[in-house]
UniProtKB/TrEMBL annotation:
Signal peptide: none annotated. InterPro entries: Cyt_b/b6_N, Cytb/b6-like_sf, Di-haem_cyt_TM. The chain crosses the membrane at residues 39-67, 96-114, 126-146, 191-214. One of its GO terms (biological process) is respiratory electron transport chain. GO terms for cellular component: plasma membrane. The main subunits of the menaquinol:cytochrome c complex are a Rieske-type iron-sulfur protein (QcrA), a cytochrome b (QcrB) and a cytochrome c (QcrC). SUPFAM superfamilies: Transmembrane di-heme cytochromes (SSF81342). Keywords: Cell membrane, Electron transport, Heme, Iron, Membrane, Metal-binding, Transmembrane, Transmembrane helix, Transport. Its main location: membrane. It holds the Pfam family Cytochrome_B. It comes from Novibacillus thermophilus. Component of the menaquinol:cytochrome c reductase complex. It is found in: Cell membrane. This is Menaquinol:cytochrome c reductase cytochrome b subunit.
Length: 223
């Protein structure tokens, strides 16, 4: 049955080359830990991606219950955490994943740096990687405000003040982030939109470029 559906689609839009391209790709020996144990360092990019997927999935489920306004945000998190079935687990995955993904991202970046994998011809992918890095930090910063408790509020206040102290552009960045005269309703709405729409869209686009470049250029090495 499935085979028939597959053949029906394939006959019309020729999808076989799409997955063959990946399936027939041989992983080089120097990145296989079964051959050289030290090759485990190549796992960190894939692990980062795995946790990014967990963040997207758990975030989608959180969004079913989270209410992005200052009167209800905190109560909706309390409900999610303490009353909703599996709520604490899904929130826990998103909460801890947010930290683990930064650790993995850091290890991946260190691997690329210390192996000199950013050198010609991979300079462009390093630059794409740096953009991804900033997007990931932005996701962490904007997500932190959403529970709308004291820790969230004051961390954001401090973060915006730090951004505001940047020479020349600082006040504009702070105004853009805060969205209004104080850290308040406008800030929460804005951080929510940036956290669930703007930055994830940017991340997916950048990751697509990251992966296309890796596929085109092949993995670097052996050293
Ligand atoms: C969400 C973030 C990221 C994901 C999911 C990701 C994923 C990957 C994956 C799966 C690879 C294949 C090799 C490996 O796993 O080590 C790779 C390679 C690479 N990544 Fe990333 N990456 C991310 C962020 C970054 C950052 C922040 C940088 C640098 C600033 C970077 C620079 C590179 C470069 C230059 C390569 C090619 C390395 C080589 O050919 O040896 N990536 N990335």
């Amino acid at each position: 049955m499935l085979r028939k559906i597959y053949d029906w689609i394939d006959e019309r839009v020729d999808i076989t080359p799409l997955w063959r391209d990946l399936a027939d790709h041989e992983v080089p020996e120097h990145v296989n830990p079964a051959h050289h144990f030290s090759a485990f360092v190549y796992c960190f990019g894939g692990l980062t991606f795995f946790i990014v997927l967990i963040q997207i999935l758990s975030g989608m489920f959180l969004a079913l219950y989270y209410v992005p306004d200052i009167l209800n945000a905190h109560a909706s998190m309390e409900y999610l955490q303490h009353e909703l079935a599996f709520g604490a687990i899904v929130r826990g995955m998103h909460h801890w994943g947010a930290s683990v993904v930064i650790v993995m991202l850091f290890l991946h970046t260190l691997r690329v740096f210390f192996q000199g994998a950013y050198k010609k011809p991979r300079e462009l992918n390093w630059v794409v990687g740096m953009l991804i890095f900033f997007v990931m930090l932005g996701l962490g910063f904007t997500g932190y405000l959403l529970p709308w408790d004291n820790k969230a509020y004051f961390a954001t206040k401090v973060g915006i003040e730090i951004a505001g102290s940047v020479p020349v552009l600082g006040p504009y960045i702070a105004q853009f982030l805060q969205g209004g005269p104080v850290v308040g309703a406008e800030t929460l709405t804005r951080f929510f939109a940036i956290h669930v729409f703007f930055l994830p869209a940017a991340l997916l686009g950048l990751l697509a470029v990251h992966f296309i470049l890796i596929r085109r250029q092949g993995i670097s090495g052996p050293l």
